[in-house]
From TrEMBL, chains A, B:
Coiled coil (UniProt feature): none
SMART domains named among the record's database cross-references: HTH_LACI
Species this protein is from: Streptomyces aureus
Name of the featured protein: LacI family DNA-binding transcriptional regulator
GO molecular function: DNA binding
Keyword field contains Transcription regulation: yes
Matches recorded under PROSITE patterns: HTH_LACI_1 (PS00356), HTH_LACI_2 (PS50932)
Domain HTH lacI-type: 5-59
Keywords noted in UniProt: DNA-binding, Transcription, Transcription regulation
A Pfam family: Peripla_BP_3
Highest rank taxon of the organism: Bacteria
Key word Transcription regulation present: yes
Length: 339, 339
């Protein structure tokens, strides 16, 4: 079996230095067109191809996964999910020297970003998070021939391999715990309902209350943001008959809710119980510490990266279902006030 | 001026289809070595080079910047700097379809990550954040020939182009404000001192107190983390003569400090004034809202990306100095308690 030609072989054959070969092959400025042509001819003659260089220089493999986030930077900054998820992905792909190409974009520009990633072969596959109602991405991935894994429930992905982690049990546990503590007016401050996981959390709240034979307390939009959570909490606490417990779509909204309660002189948990979702690093340092729900975002990233590896290698892979999120009770919940 | 040759020209010259040319040039499997050699020879003859394809497919341009973060995922998750900084970078490079290759690593493995990024030409340049004392990265970048910009003070970068945003004025303003309010025992909970910006914040605190003729209150490590901030605060508040004000290295440590104060029955701001740094999204929803310092992290990302563009194009660029961080007074500071 013949030895594969190296850059040194090409240099010798073309009668130039190795640096010149490298510059010519990489189309760097400062090399005469004639020299470039001679180097390329020598490379062709010897059968040298880019894949004989470091793997990342091969045009066949990008050595990267893509993560395109169509959210406001502020929202991502305050969300503990993404850094932990990214750390999990990197734990799998970093060892082999692969990277994660991150794009922050808007829902309007998102399609163009995927099209460019595919056209320029900058990534070997993509991880789809924040699935939306009628999400255009699963059909787009098929159209672009871009390997993809859905980070969410299988039914959100239109046939793509899904890696899911269920929110429902944590919500159901939180609401059962609140009813055990005597709460009957349990409100929900929901996330943006076009986001599948926000809608799923709201549905879990509804169905659990219904199963327990309790009325659905008021539900208000909180946008997964501190601003939205604060606004909704102010509205709920100034109702003629305010709720005795509020379950929020995420920790950001819940933390802002805690501060509004304190500002209005509503004591937590004596007069109001508060539950968040995400177990963000700061929640255990809120006062009182925030009851929340913990999902293994890092493990989710690892599982998603492994699934995407399988999809890239085999064209498809089985759905993966991770252990569900767990309710984390803390001092922000207590017995319902009398009366 | 002759028209630049296209894939179609190469295909015609080699007597194969355009798809075959594309497969051969991209070293995809399923093409005979002989065909591949014929395509490469045709490409060489016509003077076709990869840059005549979509720019991202060119071996000359990766179409990406690199950001290698040697921090714990949890720390990055809670830090509002990175998402805003990344959003700023993307605002500059996203429009032309370029991406940001993010690596989460450890200080031990960081060198290998940069070496791979350079060897595989996955990025056109890198942004260096979180500069450390005796940081090995500036000399490494020169050794690797990897264009780089330092996100921090010029003296941290060993001659690399730096894009800086000064912390000092905000710290000095905060301390002057506290002394105007009668505080004389002003403690500092510092970030990891091997980080240049953490050390700079500590130095700003020291120098401002000295300039005002005040004793340096105790300084304790807070590690930029909620855990570290909570531990340091507990220690400070149980001193025989506790400080009347604490200035923290960042908001995370300060938020945890607020909760420890509440837990110990120390009223903020009546008995203790608290100042953070970063103006994280949640700080205005802490109770009481946290006085902090605001830096334009998004603008910093934009400026750093533009500087890196210049370094890539020209080999070097002038340092850039952005408007300094601004002190943001809020209800967590008040007059020093009497006695």
């Amino acid at each position: 079996m013949a030895r594969k030609p190296t850059i040194a072989d090409v240099a010798q054959h073309a009668g130039v230095s190795r640096a010149t070969v490298s510059f010519a092959l990489n189309d760097r400025p400062g090399i005469a067109e004639e020299t470039k042509a001679r180097v390329l001819a020598a490379a062709a003659h010897l059968g040298w191809t880019p894949s004989h260089q470091a793997r990342g220089l091969s045009l066949g493999k990008a050595g990267a996964f893509g993560l395109v986030l169509a959210r406001e930077a502020e929202q991502i900054g305050a969300d503990p999910f993404f850094p932990a998820f990214i750390a999990g992905v990197e734990a799998v792909i970093g060892q082999r020297g692969d990277g994660l190409m991150v794009h922050l974009t808007t829902p309007e520009q998102e399609q163009g970003v995927y099209e460019r990633l595919a056209a320029r072969r900058q990534v070997d596959g993509v991880l789809l998070t924040d699935l939306r109602r009628d999400d255009p991405r699963p059909p787009l991935m098929r159209e672009l021939g871009l390997p993809a894994v859905v980070v969410g429930q299988p039914e959100w992905g239109g046939g793509l391999t899904a890696v899911s982690l269920d929110d429902e049990p944590a919500y159901a546990d939180a609401i059962r715990r609140l009813t055990d503590l005597g709460h009957r007016r349990i409100a929900h401050v929901e996330g943006p309902q076009e986001l599948r996981h926000a809608h799923r959390r709201r549905t879990a709240w509804e169905q659990t209350l219904r199963a327990l034979g309790l009325p659905e307390g008021p539900v208000l939009p909180g946008g997964f943001s501190p601003e939205g959570g604060a606004r909704a909490t102010r509205e709920l606490l100034t109702l003629p008959e305010p709720p005795t417990a509020i379950v929020y779509g995420n920790d950001l909204a819940a933390m802002a809710g805690l501060s509004v309660a304190q500002e209005l002189g509503v004591r937590v948990p004596d007069q109001l119980s508060v539950v968040g979702y995400d177990d963000a690093p700061l929640t255990r340092y809120s006062y009182p510490p925030l009851a929340s729900a913990r999902a293994d975002a890092r493990g989710w990233g690892e599982a998603a990266a492994r699934a995407l590896d399988a999809v890239i290698a085999l064209g498809t892979a089985a759905h993966v279902e991770l252990p569900p999120a767990q309710f984390v009770p803390r001092a922000s919940i207590g017995p319902a006030p009398r009366g």
